[in-house]
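<given_protein>
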Amino acid sequence: MAVPKKKTSKGKRNQRHAHWKAKAGVAAQKAMSLGKAVLSGRAQGFVYPIAEDAEAAEES
């Protein structure tokens, strides 16, 4: 016969929730940092396509 599982404590639930939120915060911070680096031209190891029109405008 099936036995119900034990209830998870509020502390454990809050701990998991806090960890999940912290991971999201770190991901957002990394994305913002990468975006700033790309815009300022300091990006290292990040490849993104540049339109051919933009290249022609910069050369002339």
Observations:
- The chain has a mean pLDDT of 85.
- The first helix runs from residue 10 to 40.
- The radius of gyration is 23 Å.
- The CA atoms of residues 49 and 60 lie 20 Å apart.
